[in-house]
Each structure stands twice: as structure tokens, then as C-alpha cells.
Amino acid sequence: MIRFKIVTPEKIVFEDDIFQATLPIEGGEVTILPSHAPYIGTLQAGEIIVKKTAEGEGESLATSGGFAEFRDGILTLLADTAERAEEIDVTRAEEAKARAELLMKERVSIDDEEYAKVAALLDKEFARVRVARKHRSRGGMSVGGQ
Amino acid sequence: MASARDIRRRIKGVKSTGKITRAMEMISGVKVRKAVQAVLDIRPYAKEAIRILGHLEEAAKHESHPLLLARPVKKALYVVIASNRGLCGGFNAQIIKKLRQILREDAGREQAFLTIGKKGDTAVRRLRGEILASFPDVLAAPSPELMRPIAKIIIEEFEEGRVDRVVMVYTDYVSALLQEVKVRALLPVAIKDAKKAMHEMTGIESESDEQNHALSAEYIIEPSPKKVLWKMIPRLLEMELYHAVLESNASQESARRIAMKNATDAAEEMVGDLTLAYNQVRQSKITAEIAELSAGKAALE
Q1: Chain A residues lying within 8 Å of B231, measured CB to CB
Q2: Distance of CA B217 to the CA centre of its chain
Q3: Of chain B residues 61-120, which have a CB less than 8 A from chain A?
Q4: Residue B103: which H helix or E strand, with range?
Q5: pTM value?
Q6: Cβ contact, residue pair B235, A81, below 8 Å
Q7: H/E segment holding residue B159
Q8: Contact A76 B223 (CB under 8 A)
Q9: Is the domain defined by A2-84 classed in CATH 2.60.40.730?
Q10: If one looks up domain B29-203+210-256 in CATH, what number appears?
Q11: pLDDT at res. B216
Q12: What's B290's DSSP letter?
């Protein structure tokens, strides 16, 4: 088992014993199993999938980036933000996503910095919506007619 | 002597002022608790950050980063954290006093300012300082994300060589009765100082460096120790700013609570004095009326 903890500057989002965790890292994904070597990496905006048992279904969380460390069976994420699927308000997330997309379309001539900011926002919102939708559909509810 | 009606009007006025100051006192009390709680909530994050930073530092020992390099200081940037509103006792005055003191010590160097809080704006303008940016809106509901643009400006100014040193001036909340203005260097980053700052946030001591040393060798660090460290440095700045804003907010509200408590007490005392004066006026009026009446009656007999 892995002792898994996600901390953000505002709170401890998740703390539990798990079997494996898949993390969105720069340039791809990494899955941490109990026997993984000590590891430090940077997270990017995306979905964290946690499995409590080998066969069990995964639980998803959305993150906007941060750092991951694994050592001696303890996996620690220093996340800028992290939200559990059930915490994400889908309507709010969808709205925010629409807003971010609109921003991308509207501002064709914005400078790189602004663009990067919007892109990061969009990334974050996409990750949140993805996680929330998955969670909902599993619960048997449809989301936004999709 | 004032008429009874005048005194009554004043009593009413003072009483309603007292009600307002009492309400403000209670609101500030709640806000202090909230800010103090938020400071405590950073602890787990700060604790883990110190640990990871220790490993990274060891692994990236021979790499250097532009933000880590000290250079001769031609121009310094001061980040001043004050409040947006007054009625908080000597809170802002203390910060400004300290700021003037450091500015005197650093005289001869060029100076620029970044202000958080409108009261800081006014003070710096009065000193005829150059304000690069002002962030009055982050004080109401501080969050780490709100610190990002501030950290970004600071880093940009430093990287592009426009300023050679960044210092933060804020008020540290020691206890309800004691708040201390502190000065802390933000850039160039000394990893040692950053770790010390994190320790102050957590209030605990770290594992020994030797232990870190032995462990660091085993880590797989992706994409590379250097890159992870470089990504982490801006985060550390954000955390330090966030922490300082929270400490400052706790201090500000605590100072306001005490100022408002004094005002409420003063109002109560004043109401007491005025009531006494009012009763005296009323009594002397009654006595005078009785005297007139009995005088009138005596004249009739």
C-alpha cells in the first residue's frame, strides 16, 4: 500500500492508503506503485487517478499543477490546487471552461504572457470538467446533455 | 451650560457610535481568527515543501539560477504590505515608520515600490517613491493564486535587471497584543533563507541536512533536478508572499479590534459622563421651577 497525501497551501485535500496513483506529469503520465523508486517530479494540469485496490475502480481528482514526491511508500503531492470529483460543481466548471475558450477565441492578438495565462486556465478547467463528468456519469447522471 | 436637549442629542450620538465600534470590534475578532487559521493551514504544505526542497537543493547543488545570484545593488524594490482601510490604530503608521528607516539606511540607491494595500500607496506617494504596481484587492480574501501576478512582476523586474534586490516589509502577528514589523529579503533567493522562512511558517525544525544528503542520491528526479528546482522557486516566493499577507491581515485586524475596543470603552465612559451632566441640568431645572412656583405662591398669599 501507498500512503497518499495531497496538500495545497490551503488544506490537505486527500489523505489515505491506496494501491496505486496515476499522475499527470510534464510530458506524460506516471503511475506510482508501492515498489516504485524514490521519485520527484513536476505535475501539470490534469487528472490524478487513484486506485485503492488493484482491481478497484479509480477515483479522480483534478489538479492545476504542482510537485510530486514518492519515498518509502509515502506519496506526497504539493498541488497548487486539487479538487475531488464530487467537489467540482459541473455547471460552474463548464461555465468557467466556456469563459476560458471565449477568451482564447476573442483575443487573437494578445501577448504571449496573457495567452499563456489563459491557456493555463483553460487547461485547468478542462481537467476539472473531465474529472467531474467522469464522476457524474459513473453515478448514473448525465452531464450537460453529453 | 448646554441645554438638556443638547446633551440628550449628544448622548444619542455617542451611543450609536459606540454600537458601530462594538460591531467593528467583533468583526475584527472573527477576521483575526480566520487569518490565524489560514496561517496554520499552510503548515502541512510548507512542511512538505521544505523536505522536497532539501532533496532538490542537494541534487542540483552545482547548478545556478538567475534568481539565486546576488549582484551589486543599484536599485532595490520594496514590497510594502499595509491595509486598505484605516481605523486600525498604529498599524499603518508602524509600517511606514519602519519603511522610512530602511529607506534612510539604503539612501544612495535607487528605490522602487510594489504596494499591497491602499494605505501603503498613499504613504509611498507621499515619500515620492516610484510605484511599479499596486495590489489593493488581494487583502480582502487572500489566496495563493492571487499572489501569482505579484510574484511574477517581482521575478520579471529582477530577471530583467531593472532591480537588483527585492525586500518585503510586513507586520508579523506575534500575539494579540504584539505585532512586529518585519523586513525580509525575497530576491535573490537564498535557499537557506527560504527554508528558514518555511520553518517559521511551520514552527518546527527540519530533519538534519546529513539525512537529506544520504537520501537525495536515490531519487529519480524528472525532468531534472535543476528544472524542478526552478519551477519551485516562484512557488516559494508565492508562499512567502501569501504567508506575509496573512500575517499582516491578522495583525491589522488585531490592531483594529483593540482600537475599536478602546473606542467602545471611551464611548461608554462618555455616555456615563454625559448622563451625569444631563441629570444635573435636569435637576437644576426642576429645582429652579420649584423655587419659582413657591416664590409665586408666597407672593399670592
Answers
A1: 42, 67
A2: 41
A3: none
A4: helix B91-105
A5: 0.79
A6: no
A7: helix B148-159
A8: no
A9: no
A10: 3.40.1380.10
A11: 59
A12: H
